[in-house]
Amino acid sequence: MSSKRVLTGIQPSGILHLGNYFGTIRQAMQMQEEYQCFYFIADYHAMTSLPEPELLRQRSFNVALDLLSCGLNPEKTVFFRQSDVPEVQVLTWVLSCICPLGLLERCHSYKDKVAHGMEANHGLLAYPVLMAADILLYDSHLVPVGKDQKQHLEVTRDLAMRFNNRYGEGLLTMPEAKIIEEVAVVPGLDGQKMSKSYNNTIEIFSEGKAARRKFMSIVTDSTPLEDPKDPDSCNVFALYKLFASAEEQENMRQRYRAGGLGYGHAKQELFDKYIEHFREMREKRNKLLEKPGLIEDMLQAGAQRARKVASQTMQRVMNAVGL
Ligand code: ADP
Ligand code: TRP
Asked: Do 206 and 15 meet the contact criterion of CB atoms below 8 Å apart?
């Protein structure tokens, strides 16, 4: 077990899908065996794009439910909601006072969001300062993020350096990004990258007829049933690979090439694999759903643990800045 602290934040901005699962969640679950992990639901960040209170509440709950079902262990990992730790806003202000505007104006994510029609408000501009506070508050060493968040990590490091230069070396712990190379970009129903923005997702926890219908709607070419097919250009096969053993993949590959395997059949096999893969997690989820109050209790207990670390950092910070 490494003594390094790993921190991950996830925005509750949509229903978690297979891209999220194979892209980040699975790796995060493995990390809890190796490191001391902090994992939080970034609900303040989600406010920048989700101004609907009931939806925000519901999605925060659902992310917690899904992560716990996927194996997040709240005994090992400090699991909490960002907004349950008020210290993070105090640190955001302190960091705001040393953050040059130019640093924020240069952020691609801010520019992209505004270019796509989002209102250029202060929350959107200050998003990376809040993210820096998330990271620095808990003395995080490693922050696993996708490539899209790399620049935000650079802002965090820049602010930590400015703070330590001005107020005293070693006050804030310098974090490192651990860039998650998307091992395989998980394709969506239409073959583009699976993403909630493209409306082509398969949720981690769907089941029954509606779920089957989704799998049946995966786009394929129109090669007739009896003809040989190319597994490597097929969405169904790309998704199948995520669930199947090497042997099963090879077997399916040969059946594609031999001809006589219809896409409908391949989709059914994929669907069966999907249901099987998440079976235990689904059972766990159904159990958790019977006692939703338990999830809130776990989050509150996590926030207590997080606040212990946060209050130590804030004592150092407040003292150093003269408050
Ligand atoms: P979306 O594209 O649906 O908005 P997010 O950007 O919220 O998804 O994704 C959160 C994390 O999940 C990302 O940092 C990324 O690493 C991972 N992820 C999302 N979609 C995929 C995908 N199709 N393939 C692999 N990883 C993905
Ligand atoms: N901005 C991150 C995202 O959209 C979520 C996030 C907020 C985060 N605070 C963080 C990630 C701190 C890592 C560390 O994916």
From this structure: no
The domain that holds 18 is classified in CATH as 3.40.50.620
Residue 27 belongs to what domain range?
5-185+292-321
pLDDT tens profile 87-128: 999 999 999 999 999 999 999 999 999 999 999 999 999 999
Q: Which long-range contacts (CB under 8 A, 24 or more apart) does 73-76 make?
A: 73/32, 74/298, 74/301, 74/302, 76/32, 76/33, 76/37
Judge residue 116's burial from the number of C-beta atoms within 10 Å of its C-beta, 0-12 exposed, 13-18 middle, 19 or more buried.
exposed
- pLDDT tens-digit profile of 150-186? 999 999 999 999 999 999 999 999 999 888 776 678 9
Q: Which ligand is nearest to the CA of 5?
A: 2
45 shares a domain with 178: yes
pLDDT tens readout for residues 277-300: 999 999 999 999 999 999 999 999
Report pTM: 0.93
Query: Ligand 2: which of 5, 6, 10 to mutate, judged by most atoms within 8 Å of the beta carbon?
Result: 10
10 within 8 A of 41, measured Cβ to Cβ: yes
The residues annotated with a catalytic role in the active site are 113, 193, 196
Shared domain check, 217 and 108: no
Nearest one of 66, 35, 41, 21 to 183, comparing CA atoms? 21
Establish whether residue 143 lines the binding site of ligand 2, counting it when its CB lies within 6 angstroms of any ligand atom.
yes
Atom 9 of ligand 2, nearest CA residue: 131
